[in-house]
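DATA SHEET
Item: assembly model
Revision: 1
Owner: S.N.
Input lines:
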Amino acid sequence: MAKPRGRNMPQPLSTNNQPTLEDQFDGPKRRAYDEDCGFVIEENFQRFNACNDVFSRVQWDEGVRSEKGINWFKSMFTHGLGVRNTEGYRAKDFALRNAAWVGSNLLIERNLANGRHDGFLDDLTGYAPPAPVKIEIEDPAEMAAELKQVARIFGADLIGITSTDLRWHYNRRFSAKSRSEKENADCSELPNCIVIGTEMPGKVIQTFPSALAGTAAGFGYSKDGLALMSIAQFIRNMGYRAIASLNDTAQCIPYAIQAGLGEYGRHGLVITKQYGPRLRFGKIFTDMPLAHDQPVKFGVKEFCDICRRCADACPPKAIPHGEPDGALHNQSNFVGIKKWNVDGEKCFKFWANQGTECGICIRVCPYNKLPETKLGKMYFRNWKWLAGTRLRRLALWLDIKLRFGERFKPDWWWKNRPGW
Amino acid sequence: MAKPRGRNMPQPLSTNNQPTLEDQFDGPKRRAYDEDCGFVIEENFQRFNACNDVFSRVQWDEGVRSEKGINWFKSMFTHGLGVRNTEGYRAKDFALRNAAWVGSNLLIERNLANGRHDGFLDDLTGYAPPAPVKIEIEDPAEMAAELKQVARIFGADLIGITSTDLRWHYNRRFSAKSRSEKENADCSELPNCIVIGTEMPGKVIQTFPSALAGTAAGFGYSKDGLALMSIAQFIRNMGYRAIASLNDTAQCIPYAIQAGLGEYGRHGLVITKQYGPRLRFGKIFTDMPLAHDQPVKFGVKEFCDICRRCADACPPKAIPHGEPDGALHNQSNFVGIKKWNVDGEKCFKFWANQGTECGICIRVCPYNKLPETKLGKMYFRNWKWLAGTRLRRLALWLDIKLRFGERFKPDWWWKNRPGW
């Protein structure tokens, strides 16, 4: 693993001085459900230091930091920055993309003065503390079913529940204030993890790459933040503890897989049955007694084995074409899991060059369909079935032949052309 | 009109000392579109003083103020208050209802220290000021179409655009800090009004009266607040001014009618084609050039003339059985419009006695259907057509015979029984 190349990082990162495996997380390195999840954990497994996340590295690592990268951040708040006379990058596209972040920004700004960056570096500060008296829960299975109703009414499209697994928690997190690492939130006494997935608006996703499409990410975070804040407060109102989290605290991807929301895809995203990879995830750690869900398999691994649409379409070639080998491109990769690893540096460099988010891998993924018409719904259902059989090559051929995944013109989205 | 009975109101309310009609709003008393909207404006028309809103009166008017009324407010923040061992009023129902308000509370609390109560007494303080340069808009019709796309992606289910009409703006507003009246937001230079409607979750609505059903109101405000903040910021990012508003600043109902979202119903709510009365409304005043929508008619007035389901079902008999006569029950009524007037005092007293919100009038309204099944969708479409014809009495008879509008058991909602 590459050494941290940061020059303005006040404290050295602890990546090269990891404690022993057993020190890093409570419990065994491998869990009973790892096989069902498709997790292949290796001897050199290490918990991830969130300072090595490429978005944190832009703050401290000269190797990633660039004027364009910084401008990408700035363009969120600076009128006109990044605007050019090209479909999808016009003033209105940026106006929309930046407005989409308002909900998320309001959550971040609640605690910015205290050196926190809620939802991205730090967990979402709760609205109010737990009720002093716990409401007794007789049946964790019934409570889990009720909690799913709660999550749905607050905007979650998918909900799964699993056990808290400290392997997926960052061993340290990044402080934007001190630009150094700090303690992560302590979830060790919160045994259950609720994972929610919210669908991102499909039509704008089809316009990736564009500033317009960045709206899907921004409003996804805003909507997720509202859902997580509300669900967590329900739990607290019932007298239990809850730590709600967007990108902070722990990795969403393994948790979403564990909670049965989907399978791991070549592009490093979770592919769900319902929405393919077109989702954002959030999670809540709690001591509320809740029954757990089981991981699901519907042939994604086998399909991704033969499909390279995302890898082929990725402009900076950040997605691997080969086997899931856990190849380490740089320190932004998670060490010790045999999986398809995306090169975060290449990915972010493309974002910085474009001046906006990219999600071409979501757009071209054959599991990303917009089942908005009856025909589309029926096609998607049957296609998924086919992709899960030995005829998966036929499914892939069909998908390409029917020109799914092609980019929609951003100006068409603005005109709300029918048939979308 | 009754005199204000408040004893602890520091300044006298101006209701008895109204300026002349022409002083109260810019422009003529009647507008060209009044007839299309079904507005019958009378000589004694007066702009409404928001201090006379029943929710404000609880703060200052001893005639409305009661321990139960205050407890209704307090129960939003006090664990256990109002909880009883009855379906729909259990600890979990209140836990959910109160969590639903988190998003809305976060908006309120942004400016509470400055004596503001955003979204309820004061307009929603904007996230960031307008961009210094206005993006030129050549075609207001095209911009209106684009703005509707923006509103939809931010969660609005219905969107209409109309002209700002100061008749619907409060002449004064209530300050929760000083418990006296203060200046309302100045929208006189913002000629266009965007009205958004967001559907409230239908299944919980069917459990009214219950604390559980209050979730629909709370999360409705939270979701609306996020949509309004985001749309308004889009407008500002385009270089234009925007004042976003929930219950504050002006009345939503006449604006929603003017903007073509629906017709006025006997229960004092707007009945829309798509969701009946099961919506929350918000609005944004702006100087962005936008084409306007036209009012719609689909037979609601004629149907409400023969239907009294809401009036019959209202426990405190707050909804009139007779003709739309603009009868003034008390100072919480809007003076000088010939319409069905609800008795806000009776309505709120029932809320206070129940300890939660009530929306039985929404539940029993024949236009409130849950078209979640194919059959339901088809039935609702055909029923609406029938209700708009001379066979409306048959439509009403059918609705009652088929037992629509009956209360669902709150515990059934928690169990997510199929077929809902």
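QC remark: Residues 190 and 287 of chain B are 5 Å apart (CA to CA).
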